[in-house]
Design goal:
mainly alpha
Length: 185
Amino acid sequence: MTTIPPKSSYPSWVRELHSPPNPKTKSASSIRDPPGFSASSTGKRAQISKTQPHKPPTPEETDILKVKKSWEVALAPAKQLPMNAIMMYMSGNSLQIFSIMMVFMLFKNPLQALMQTNAAFTKYETPRTKSKMWVVKAVYVLMNLVALGLGIWKVNGMGLLPTTRSDWLAWETQREPLERAVFAF
């Protein structure tokens, strides 16, 4: 069996660890309390007595908050436009897997958002906010169309849009000459 050595044989840091220092008095402390701190508010009783019951928001306040949140949702695609534009610029115009995947995501996300426009705003729509929601939805659709325009710009830059006459040569008919020139000796 091992015997426990007396406390005096422990190193000083072990003794200090197991016996916390004496609390300093207010007059002994040279550090001031931070602004807004009061010693009386640290107790639980003072905290409980100061807490007042929270009154629920009025329907008008709730509607205002819902309209503000719906504007945040409507402007979210606009906040993504600069990031998408920089990413499209940096991915280059060559046909590589990275640039193709970037363009695919640039088309996929706005198309999905356009198809789910009403679903995105159902939790914010109430009978009182219905008249304000059509403007919010219109901005949401407009921002997603701008994102689609960015995708079309990128596809055109990659040379995948048929915008020149040479892209349609398969459907061109051969011209019939009005005259023929024959080489004579």
